[in-house]
Amino acid sequence: MTDYGKLAQLVMDRCDELGKISQSDDCLDRRYLTKEHKQANGLVGGWMQDAGMQTWQDEAGNLWGRWQAANTGAPRFIMGSHLDTVPNGGQYDGMLGVITPVTLIAAMNQAGIRLPFHLDVVGFGDEEGTRFSSTLLGSRALTGQWPTSWADLKDSDGISLAQALKDFGSDFASIPNAAIETDNLLGYLELHIEQGPVLEQLDLPVGVVSAIAGAKRFEFNITGMAGHAGTVPMNLRQDALCASSEMILAVERVAQNHGIVATVGRIQNRPNGVNVISGNTGFSLDIRSEFDDKRDIALDEILLELEAIAARRNVRIERKATHAANAVHCDDKLQSVLRNAIEAQNIPVHTLFSGAGHDAMAIADICPVAMLFMRCDKGISHHPAEAIDTPDVAVTLAVLSQTLQSLA
């Protein structure tokens, strides 16, 4: 009988070891196509080989391991997540979803368990988009969605994506070779920490993801009239900052009324003096929902409210769309298998949607996808305080083992 507690401790130890590979001495920071990326691929690739898997690295720098089925012509099922991090990140975001299935495969292999399909585990090189400001580069390569214009994307040091690939030992022109055949592809399953507080609040170790929220982002620029703080009467002011403040509160109110999430996370104010009326303010908007139509109805209302505030306050408003991604709904059959596997552990099943983006969003273009969330401490992620509990990992291993054998 598999000792999931012992396996869970091994997962934790491996996360600790992988978490030490960083381009910064002060924090965990591992970015796409760096020497640290190559080092991480080497470490995880060694664990894959120890588990009895065949390993390779594709043209986009993604790490692969295959647990071969007896029939070489068998279909394939993919599990995975990403190995890159945000600057000053945590050591479980992404990494857990690669290390856990690799560790489980070693145990299943040792127990003599065999599956009628090839089980591939992929460690994506880029999900966060930290280096080249374009997310899901690793998983999008699998779907053949790398526009040629990406060759000219540059990092903060002015190094292009094409040059970075060359330095890594690959070539931008060969990226189409990373796209995978879909005829025999059964599906994709991604384990990820929740990055939110819902499972912890419910005292549940795991939950089934129903959908990944679609997001739209905008930049707004509000232009008023700068003036002396002591000489311009309140009723004659065109205060861009006050107008922006009212707009931001309108965003919050509309989002609450429609049951979606909307966030103003960045503000820039000019001239930004203590005795000067604001003449210009810029702010961002990130709006998300698991249902695109629900999000867009709320967005339309927000835009009308912002225009009305601008007119009433006699300021000019301009906006620019910066990002748009549709929601992705997880496969009903795979969700059902996950729910049954959780029930088999005598754990109540909770279904929730993901407000954060994941590699599964890209992979959904080529096959059915599913996600399993695992509880994380206080919902903290993208931060060094990111933490998980070993018993939760043990439960997750048992759920994944049951899931894979049920798929068989």
Automatic annotation (TrEMBL):
InterPro entries membership: Amidase_Cbmase, Bact_exopeptidase_dim_dom, Peptidase_M20
CDD domains according to UniProt: M20_bAS (cd03884)
Required cofactor(s): Mn(2+); Zn(2+)
Record keyword Nuclease present: no
This protein's record includes keyword Glycoprotein: no
Molecular function in Gene Ontology: hydrolase activity, acting on carbon-nitrogen (but not peptide) bonds, in linear amidines; metal ion binding
Domain of life: Bacteria
Cofactor notes: Binds 2 Zn(2+) ions per subunit.
UniProt binding sites for Zn(2+) 1: 82, 93, 192
Classification via Pfam families: Peptidase_M20
Family in the record: Belongs to the peptidase M20 family.
Protein name, as recorded: Allantoate deiminase
Organism annotation: Marinomonas polaris DSM 16579
